[in-house]
Amino acid sequence: MRRFATERAKRLLVGSFRSSPPMFSVPLCSSASAAAAAMDSAASPVALDTINQKVLKCEYAVRGEIVTHAQRLQQELQSKPGSHPFEEILYCNIGNPQSLGQQPITFFREVLALCDHPPLLDKSETHALFSADAIARAWQILDAIPGGATGAYSHSQGIKGLRDTIADGIAARDGFPANPDDIFLTDGASPGVHMMMQLLIRSEKDGILCPIPQYPLYSASIALHGGSLVPYYLNESTGWGLEISELQKQLEDARSKGITVRSLVVINPGNPTGQVLAEENQKEIVEFCKNERLVLLADEVYQENIYVDDKKFNSFKKIARSMGYGDEDLPLVSFQSVSKGYYGECGKRGGYMEVTGFSAEVREQIYKVASVNLCSNISGQILASLVMNPPKVGDESYESFDAEKTGILSSLARRAKALEDAFNGLEEVTCNKAEGAMYLFPRLHLPKKAIEAAKAVKAAPDAFYARRLLDATGIVVVPGSGFGQVPGTWHVRCTILPHEDKIPAIISRLKAFHEAFMEEFRD
């Protein structure tokens, strides 16, 4: 049954590429977009030169031009098998685990199914098909939902009983209490980020300190809300280290230009860089934000994805509380999502932000913004509560749950190591260890001839490399230029998510392509 469901899902996925346009497209050539703008302006009252210019400034490379081209190739492979030197497109561009074959956690899906169709709970057959603890959890959740209706609107912060569960999970994780009134359930972490940008950015004179490389959600949301991105560079030579001296330098430079820096974004574990912050480094960051009166925006959606024995995840809230700092000392917003970790429920759109250190008056404004969107989806809310309160020792589902979780995380660790070794084995490529998250961000030391060839087609050198890689192998990666990087350096981001059985073939294709590419453009 599971094999049938998986194969059917693959066929549906292929079909979805035919009908779904990308969210944002980053063109390789500006002349094409200029011509399109001219035609658009002549034909319609809504044209590129008349829409909100903040939208034009917004770019999201993860679903940009390379991915659009990959979708075209996918269609060609379907309509004309054998038309390309590969049989399938391997999407290594985005952290979308289930699209690449990862199975959902059984307990989570059992609870969701029962909550969405409560009559199942009254059928005798249900006890043979569903675990006892899933049935009990479904009753518990339905009792917390007014009317037991998962199709109804909820409180704009999320269902109170689910927020209680999440607060208990945070407290168990950190060893410090959490208040359910501080929790805002959201459709994934992204809406929470947008809400905070809406709150903090008043004009282009307001700046947000963001890591470079960074997840493009931040640069895109800052652009959409009219603020200024203040970059701080992670140190690639020290494993993408975050240095306080760099934060101080960029903060002072921004202030000298009249920019009021409002907050610091930290992504831990890192995206696209995969590093996990050490506890002492986190303490330095908390102290920096406290001293400089900055809101700390902690993107912690990969907290379950740790692959090395000498690192562990610590939330910034835990760090701040362990230093003796309370709400009055540090405004802190922590983001979590059901899309990552071992669960990978991207399409369910569940997540939350925990908002601490804000006055009651400001919290009312955050609630007002949340209420404009009514509420996040109920399935996502339920999943967020399950993620923060999974089966425990003694529960009927615990052994199968633990086997699924351990199997997924162990496989991800093996895939990360295999791809890391593969990149480091390529000529003029260096790749830091993936300590966590779902990505590798190898550096390409490209020949001058390749850089000149990229300039000739008005493409960034890493975008040129990524396009050539796609056309030759069907492997989709994201150019590092879409995440930001030290000027004059070039990278690509590659997920570790393809099924483990496919990793050897990916490595083989990658190696053959890279050897041919370097030979073609050798100086």
From TrEMBL:
Single GO molecular function: pyridoxal phosphate binding
Enzyme class: transferase
Keyword Transferase set for record: yes
Gene3D superfamilies xrefs: 1.10.287.1970, Aspartate Aminotransferase, domain 1, Type I PLP-dependent aspartate aminotransferase-like (Major domain)
InterPro entries, sorted: ALAT1/2-like (IPR045088), Aminotransferase_I/II_large (IPR004839), PyrdxlP-dep_Trfase (IPR015424), PyrdxlP-dep_Trfase_major (IPR015421), PyrdxlP-dep_Trfase_small (IPR015422)
Pathway: Photosynthesis; C4 acid pathway; Amino-acid degradation; L-alanine degradation via transaminase pathway; pyruvate from L-alanine: step 1/1
Name by which UniProt lists this protein: Alanine aminotransferase 2
Organism: Musa acuminata subsp. malaccensis (Wild banana)
